[in-house]
Amino acid sequence: MGQPMRTQLPKNVVVVVVVIVVVVVVVVVVVVVIVAVVVVIVAVVVVVVVVVVVVEVVVLVVIVIVVVVEVVVVVVVVVVIVVVVVEVVVVVVVIVIVEVVVVVVVVVVVVGLVVVKAMEE
User: Which ranges carry the ABC transmembrane type-1 domain (predicted)?
Assistant: First the structure.
């Protein structure tokens, strides 16, 4: 009665505990691997999304540059059209003035000749 009794686990219980521990370790490793794969997939998706966004921003910048160039071209065309119209108006006005001056000179010369002819007679 003075000695404490030692209890020994049967060998079957030890095997079951070892198997349970191994199964738990394998499950934990599998879960960790699955989580790591999911993290890698999410990281790849994030990188792809960032690349797509950067490409879209570059495309938008190119579109803005093209629109600005088109606006500049339109402004240049409008300026050229205005210059051509002003030139045409100036040419027409000059031609009309020259024609009026020529007509006045011709009339003055003819009237002068008529007056001179009349004075001679």
Answer: 29-121
State the Cα–Cα distance between residues 60 and 109, nearest whole angstrom.
Answer: 73
Residues contacting 25, CB < 8 A, separation 6+: none
- The mean predicted confidence, pLDDT, of the chain is 92
pLDDT band for position 6 (cuts 50, 70, 90): low
Average pLDDT in the 1-27 region?
Answer: 78
How many angstroms separate the CA atoms of 104 and 118, rounded? 21
